[in-house]
Amino acid sequence: MKRNWTLDKIFGLYTVVFLGITALIGLAEYLLGLPPKWIGWIFMGLSIGIYVVIGIITRTSEADQYYVAGRRVPALYNGMATGSDWMSAASFISMAGALSAQGFAGLAYVMGWTGGYLLLAVFLGPYLRQFGAYTIPDFLDARYGGNIPRIVGVVAAIACSFPYLIAQVTGVGLIVSRFIGLDFNIGVFVGLLGVLFCSVLGGMRSVTWTQVAQYIILIVSYLVPVVYLSWTIFSIPIPELTYGQLLQANNARALEVTRDVKEKETRALWRSDADAIDTKLKSPGLSEDEAETLRGQRALALRQATAPAVSDEATVGRYLTVPTGLGMWNFLALTFCLMVGTAGLPHILTRYYTTPSVQEARTSVAWSLFFIFLLYFTAPAYAAFARFAIYAKLVGTQIAELPRWVTLWAPAGLFEVIDKNGDGIVQWADFVIKSTDFVVLATPEIAGLPFVITGLVMAGGLAAALSTADGLLLTIANAFSHDLYYNVIDRTASLKKRLTITKILLIATALIAAWVATYRLAIIVELVAWAFSLAGASFFPALVMGIWWQRTNRAGAVAGMLAGLLVTLYYMIGSRFYGVSWFGTQTIASAIFGLPVGFLVTWIVSLLTAPPPQAIQEVVANVRYPQPGKTAAAAVTGRGATPS
């Protein structure tokens, strides 16, 4: 397909203008002393203002435009929108924090999330585009026949999308509460205004072009701080080439801290606290709430007593070493779950319905990988620079003279500084990390960079969270209005009525997600990992076998989706709250059990029951070997590329 030079010019100009405005804000801070709170408000207003304007310009009431952006999004821009849709608050805010805390083990997120796009390119993306539907439940309905696969698909889509949405809303709340001073519980609602404008006014059309604009903001804001630090420390503006030296410096500093007498004293006090809490937990008459509180306090005390990279020299070494034994099992299990989850997420798969052709869909996957690579290749560098900054700017300072960023970030509740041994000096064990989500957002301030860079990071984090929230809200609302209401309950509903229901559900879902997010149930990256396990276990077997094995039938697909989803949910809830443990597997890798069960049940039930009708088998043939001018959906529905 020919390049769209009009789009190139529009987004090229947009990028230049955004960078120019950022430079002007920086000059105002340097020359006029522009207050940080004003900078936060400017970036917040600028970001949401851009998204609202795009939403207004691209508003539509046409079904094809609202659900799949008219199927006219060029591969380059669909790849950029997919990257933005994909790089959520977990990628932008949490991944570098996970790497900073876990070391090599945290690379499971990078490998799993990136590897998932290879599965998409090979097994799913182009074939789903050839099918020519609007949603994943559309595919399940036409491929397997009847409403039951569609309904199960709706349940699975909501089950995996809602935790993911809560994670994005949590990220929005963190950013808004810190940078413009609103309470977290208010910030989660305020930040969603931009999302609702885009989703409600123009559906996928508005969301697509908003996500392209958001990608530009988020990638610029992610790269600038580490490029700046790399240039400042090494005089080389390529952090990917310099962070290896910082890893060695961090390792040496960790060993130095480990040998410090005061550090050992502090850790011994934390260990003593943990032992004392153990004794209290054995006391009779404790209520469940009291016991849960004590268990949380014990976990924190143990973490401070044995935190990686400072408890002993062997642990320091393991920070940069490939995991072994149970650690390797969990590393591989998490990587696998994130890969299949990526290939099963409905809001990502739907993006491949928006391209003009199957070839464009395949090219779009390649562009997606490139745009995601730019951030993921930089995340380990971000983690190293953040850890270096904390060692340099916090450890060893006076408690009475804590850096300003500690006070500024205190209301967010992500960390706390406690003078455990009362010596007036900050030890590493005095730095109580409650959530590693602070790493990306706070690093510019920790390193003492100009606040304009902090504001830029705020805009990027907001773009990452809102772009994914856009896609998730549409997925959930469409699951109810298009897949459930229109296709199952009332096939005679007018387009106007369907879009009205969609818009009401968008608003309702956003409000519910914001309300749930106020409870701060888990760190962002954990919530997202749950979503990936649920998506991988429920959708991946049914989609892959539906495309690659003609014998897969309705009974097999439904049984497989339900079995995979239920096994994953059982282990997820059981291991997180009730002490269930299979082979020592972490909760975030629950799909390692659910997905094989899903494949196995689909295969066995399909073999034990009647094969699908010939017309449905033709769908499979046409998906893999397309007939000119005819979509696969037409083989069964006769509705061609617009099955609604």
Describe the model.
It contains 27 helices and two strands. It is globular. Helix 2 packs parallel to helix 21, helix 4 packs across helix 17 and helix 23 runs antiparallel to helix 24. A two-stranded antiparallel sheet has the order 1-2. With 644 residues, the chain is mainly α.
| Residues in β-strands, percent | under 5%
Give the CA-based shape.
globular
Number of strands: 2
Tally of DSSP helical segments: 27
Topology:
Elements: H1 5-32, H2 36-57, H3 63-68, H4 75-86, H5 89-102, H6 107-131, H7 136-144, H8 147-179, H9 184-191, H10 193-234, H11 239-258, H12 261-281, H13 288-306, H14 313-318, H15 326-342, H16 346-349, H17 358-376, H18 379-393, H19 404-409, E1 415-417, E2 431-433, H20 438-446, H21 451-489, H22 495-517, H23 524-548, H24 554-577, H25 591-608, H26 614-624, H27 632-636
Antiparallel strand pairs: 1-2
Helix pairs in contact: 1-10, 1-21, 2-10, 2-21, 4-10, 4-17, 5-18, 5-20, 5-21, 6-15, 6-17, 6-26, 7-8, 8-9, 8-21, 8-22, 8-23, 8-24, 10-21, 10-22, 11-18, 12-13, 15-23, 18-20, 20-21, 21-22, 23-24, 23-25, 24-25
In short:
By secondary structure, the chain is mainly α. It has helices at residues 5-32, 36-57, 63-68, 75-86, 89-102, 107-131, 136-144, 147-179, 184-191, 193-234, 239-258, 261-281, 288-306, 313-318, 326-342, 346-349, 358-376, 379-393, 404-409, 438-446, 451-489, 495-517, 524-548, 554-577, 591-608, 614-624, 632-636; strands spanning 415-417, 431-433.
